[in-house]
Structures are given as structure tokens and as C-alpha cells.
Write a structure and sequence with these properties.
54% helix; four-stranded mixed β-sheet; globular; 9 helices; 221 residues; alpha+beta; single chain
């Protein structure tokens, strides 16, 4: 068998089953969307980060695969989903024929993507962290009743656009957000996401970059 690709992962019935049941569980718990839209965007962004920094095509592909698989642990439980997901991913990938070394790299990245227990410990894990923690957007909100929004719903719904920008000349990774402050003041964003932005900063530093946060044109970090 040749090298396992992102397309192989997308066409894997077991992976799709885990993504669907995981998102079903999070919907029941009232969490934002964690299914195909989220993992697809995280996969794309993680790959683009390493590609723009000049990493090899294979490392870029592994980052894409890690991004696509990073939330399958939600099929088990939201608590410790990074760790359970890492083991699930390793088992799926080796069963598909991926080398133990590559599967272990993806396992490592997935096992370190959650801000409560993880850290940037490899290029792939750093790219995954930045991609995952930067996906804040109103399309992730399931609740259609603004009156009943909790702070997580309000913050996500307020974000009209979100872009990750790599500037190699200035050695920067920039998260640029446009927020409707009538829905959510900027301070609420920090209340919810300060730990995630700190994780982004450390992940950027692992890649030799500085992290900047720009909200409505204002540099905040």
C-alpha cells in the first residue's frame, strides 16, 4: 500500500462514523459544531501553515490528516477527548497501513491539541493547535435563539470573519477577527479564549514565529 493521504481518511467509513457520533454527543451537550465543517477547516489550515513555512509535502499531509482526525475522541466522551482520540487515530491509521512512525506523529499531535492538557511538542502539533484554536465563527453556533445564548454562543456568533495569516518575512502568525461588538464585547472574547490564545502563542513560538491577535483592526496581542 502507498502512503496514506487525507483523501483516504475522508473516505474511511470508521472515521466518518466517529465524527458523526462525536458531533451528535456534543450537540446533545450544547457545544458548538465539531463535525465536517470544523475538522475540514482545521485540516486545511494546519496544512497551509506548514506549507507556507516550507515544510515537506509529507509533513504538510500529516498535518492535514491530524487536523481531520483531531476531534474523533468526542465519540467517546468530551472529557479527555484529545487522549482517547489520539489512541483511536493511531489504531485506525495503522490498520489502514500507515507506518508506525507516521501514525505516532499524528497520535502525538492529537493528544496535545487540548488547552487543558496539551502543548506544542512537534511541528504538526503546533500547526494543529493554531488551526484548531483559531476556528471561531458564527457558523459553529447551533442555537437559533439569540435570547438564550450562553457566553460561548455569543462570542462565536459575534465573529463575522476569522483568518489565519502566515507572514514569513516578519516571522508572524496572525489571527485576524472581525467581531460584531453589539453582540459581544471584545472583553468577552478574552474571558473565554485567553487560554487558547496563550496556547496559540506558544505553538507559534515552537515554529519560530510570533503570534499576533487582531480584532476589528486593533492589535491586541
Amino acid at each position: 500500500m502507498g502512503l496514506i493521504t487525507l483523501e483516504d481518511i475522508k473516505n474511511n467509513e470508521e472515521v466518518n462514523s466517529f465524527l458523526e457520533i462525536g458531533d451528535k454527543q456534543l450537540a446533545a451537550l450544547g457545544y458548538t459544531e465539531h463535525s465536517y465543517r470544523h475538522v475540514g477547516l482545521v485540516s486545511k489550515t494546519a496544512g497551509e501553515i506548514l506549507e507556507k513555512l516550507g515544510f515537506s509535502d509529507r509533513e504538510v499531509e500529516l498535518a492535514k490528516i491530524a487536523g481531520y482526525l483531531h476531534d474523533i475522541g468526542n465519540a467517546v466522551n468530551r472529557v479527555d477527548h484529545a487522549h482517547s482520540g489520539a489512541i483511536l487515530a493511531y489504531n485506525i491509521l495503522t490498520k489502514m497501513g500507515m507506518s508506525y512512525g507516521e501514525a505516532a506523529e499524528i497520535m502525538l499531535a492529537i493528544g496535545n491539541h487540548d488547552e487543558n492538557t496539551g502543548a506544542a511538542v512537534s511541528n504538526i502539533s503546533a500547526a494543529l493547535i493554531i488551526a484548531d484554536k483559531s476556528d471561531v465563527h458564527r457558523t459553529r453556533v447551533r442555537n437559533n435563539d439569540i435570547v438564550t445564548f450562553d457566553i460561548h454562543d455569543r462570542v462565536n456568533y459575534a465573529v463575522e470573519s476569522s483568518h489565519v495569516i502566515i507572514d514569513r518575512e516578519k516571522n508572524l502568525v496572525v489571527l485576524e477577527l472581525r467581531i460584531d461588538t453589539k453582540i459581544c464585547p471584545v472583553m468577552d472574547y478574552f474571558e473565554i479564549f485567553l487560554a487558547r490564545m496563550t496556547m496559540n502563542r506558544r505553538a507559534a513560538e515552537f515554529l519560530g514565529l510570533k503570534f499576533q491577535l487582531i480584532i476589528n483592526g486593533t492589535y491586541l496581542l
